[in-house]
Write a structure and sequence with these properties.
100 residues, mainly alpha
Amino acid sequence: MTDAQWARIEPMLPDRTPKRGGRWRDHRQVIDAIAFKYRTGTPWMDLPEHFGSWKGAHNRLRKWATDGTWEKVFTTLLAQADAEGDFDWVVAVLLLLSGA
């Protein structure tokens, strides 16, 4: 992820100190791990070590899915892209309908 992409996403993420336990690993490293996993199809347990714990990345993915973090990030980024003219709704609908 580029620094510019990170600058757009970071403010939408929760505080790195959860209500219980210790401080979370760097959010950017976790998002990079999640992106790598889905881009390459690598099993969670085979993530390269430089991404940190695969369990941590997997747990954060699930937590953010249930607490609405991903929805907030995607909705905000979509609105920003649309406002800036960087999103083509026709292409998006065609991709959705084609199952791509």
